[in-house]
Amino acid sequence: MFARMIQKGKTFVQAALVTFIGLSVAAYPVSAHEWEPRWSLAIHGGAGTITPENLTPELREQYEAALQEALDAGSAVLKDGGSAMDAVKAAIVPLEDNPLFNAGRGAVFTWEGENELDASIMDGRDRSAGAVTGVKSIKNPILLADAVRTESRHVFLSGAGAEEFAAAHSLETAPPEWFATEKRREALERMKARELSALDVDHKFGTVGAVALDLNGNLAAGTSTGGMTGKRWGRIGDSPMIGAGTYADDRSCAVSATGWGEYFIRVGVAQEICTRLRYRFRQEIDAAQATVPKGPEGFPTYIVHASEFRLSTEQVQEEADAVMSEVKELGGDGGIILVTPDGYSLYSFNTAGMYRGRATSAGVNEVAIFAGE
Ligand code: ASP
């Protein structure tokens, strides 16, 4: 065991410590090479009943190309040493502009036949955040959310006020025709005619999102959506809600969600995952510390330092899955993407598929749609 650790690049102290205390927890000591700067990016374009049977090969190709375009845009920023915040915006803008997704252009219709857009963004460095809901003329709501974060004293602006703020900060606007697509209008009409629910007509959530880790070790998350077909009375989903649809904290993770917003709000999904990871990390360190023998005076002979450990990817997945199970138990569905400070990027979803992709400085570059891919 000892030789293997040295081989893997562990420092002597770390290897000796692990051998000494016979560490069995899955959190593992950090090796020297693992400290090298790294970047990581994950994106999504919604989750839902997405199966090979209900997606034609042509449409599948279009989705994959759109996801790859977004992934490339975000990766280019990170490769060049750009910030996680810039990468998240760079990845989300093309998804907002693409009518395939329910965000920006191609957003679903409200009951009244309009497109009302929501977005939020968060910087894990200082947990600064910006969000907008119910905007109708802003071409890229994610950029407005970021302007709220950087140019205002507030976190969350709505409707006419948000549009007024956008005008004062020269955000690009677009006419209603830019956002409206036939496919989404037809979904609203079907819903009204047959008294269906949003889930019956949409079959999938087309919200878009991105999470990133940059070379400086900072995390960011962003989400943008048109909400759910036929929403009314000023309904607001999880996507623009910091803590529900979006959260980033350099100490734990960055999360962006997609799914049945009401359930994600009730569980507080994005923040709940980050909080669980923070405590899980602490628990693992405490468990390791408890196994360190005490000296003659009753004090531990070694103090385990947080910087020597990281959670394993399995542990991170466990926590994300546990939160998604809570959503399911309450009756909701959907998924999340997540990136940790160590560069793990993963998904957790309880639907048949999720439009998704990830790329890392280690050479990962993949897009996927169906579960199990
Ligand atoms: N979460 C979004 C909402 O409830 C919908 C989606 O993910 O597509 O507004």
Helix content: 25-40%
Portion in strands: 15-25%
pLDDT < 50 runs, ≥5 residues? 1-26
Averaging pLDDT over every residue, what do you get? 90
Major pleated sheet: 8 strands, mixed
Radius of gyration computed on alpha carbons = 22 Å
- The total of helices stands at 12
Class per helix and strand makeup: alpha+beta
Strand order of the largest sheet: 5-4-3-7-6-2-13-14
Cα shape: globular
Bound molecule kinds, no repeats: aspartic acid
Number of strands: 14
Write down the secondary-structure element order. Answer: HHEEHHEEHEHHHHEEEEHHEHEEEE
Give the end-to-end Cα distance, rounded to a whole number of Å: 34 Å
Strand and helix map with partners:
Layout: H1 2-7, H2 12-21, E1 28-29, E2 40-48, H3 57-79, H4 84-97, E3 117-123, E4 128-135, H5 141-151, E5 156-158, H6 159-168, H7 176-179, H8 182-194, H9 198-202, E6 208-213, E7 219-225, E8 246-249, E9 253-259, H10 261-267, H11 269-290, E10 309-310, H12 313-330, E11 334-339, E12 345-349, E13 353-360, E14 365-370
Parallel strand pairs: 4-5
Antiparallel strand pairs: 1-10, 2-6, 2-13, 3-4, 3-7, 6-7, 8-9, 9-11, 11-12, 13-14
Helix pairs in contact: 3-4, 10-12, 11-12
The structure holds aspartic acid (ASP).
What labels describe this entry?
single chain; disordered N terminus; alpha+beta; 8-stranded mixed beta sheet; 373 residues; 4-stranded antiparallel beta sheet; binds aspartic acid; 14 strands
Provide a short characterization of the protein structure.
The chain has 373 residues and is α+β, with helices and mostly antiparallel strands. The chain has helices at 2-7, 12-21, 57-79, 84-97, 141-151, 159-168, 176-179, 182-194, 198-202, 261-267, 269-290, 313-330, and strands at 28-29, 40-48, 117-123, 128-135, 156-158, 208-213, 219-225, 246-249, 253-259, 309-310, 334-339, 345-349, 353-360, 365-370. It is 38% helix and 21% strand.
